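User: I've been going back and forth on whether these two constructs are worth ordering. Before I decide, could you fold them both?

Assistant: Sure. I'll take them in the order you sent them. The first construct and its structure tokens:
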Amino acid sequence: MKKLLLTILLGCFALVGFSQARFDVKVGMSMTNVTANDETDMKVGYALGVGMDYAFNENWAFQPGIMFTGKGYKVGDVKAKAHYLDIPLLAAYKMPVADDVKFVINAGPYLAFGIGGKNKWEDEGISISTDYFGDGGAKRFDLGLQYGVGAEFSDCILLNLTGQYGFISPFEHSDSKNLAFFITLGYRF
């Protein structure tokens, strides 16, 4: 895992040497749940991180990034809160719609690594907490598809609505997969 992260990070720095590459920062909100379980409810969390926009031409770009995201779900009195490091690797198509405004569609795979989290609930007035990941908990690695739409204003203000659908169940003996939606606002340097 460390070698993969280091390789991706070094690859991003190598691309920065070209004038077509620009960095951005993003902050926003996540709305997450797991699939294949009708008893779970959505959990609201956070999303923040950095990204890069490597333009191949006026319309096409490669957009990798590193995002810290809050994911999880609620089921009954149990609140499952997980913190992930997401690495999206997206292809983006940009269409001018007005002066200094572009409509953006992007899609591609994402890798996610669980970095912490808790399951919390109350039992007879006593607050109980267990680790989300680890022994008997969720798996730390997730892989899936990320897709989104957004707008770029003056080539520096970014507004995005993004979805993620996980391909790997985070739990043993379960068909549940991570499902997330993000609304983010960003600034490109």
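The second construct, handled the same way:
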Amino acid sequence: MNMLIFLIPIALFLGGLGLYAFLWALKSGQYEDLDGAAWRVITDDDDHPAA
């Protein structure tokens, strides 16, 4: 029972940290172009030379 005194604040902190990271990703536009990455994988672009 004494461990709950430590585990509950740690869980709340990590949950808040995850929520903050998600809201930051939304605000910075990480989810704006969901189809673009899928099409970039499919298309065959030979514009870039192999390194």
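Notes on the second construct follow. Residues 11 and 17 are 10 Å apart (CA to CA). The radius of gyration is 20 Å.
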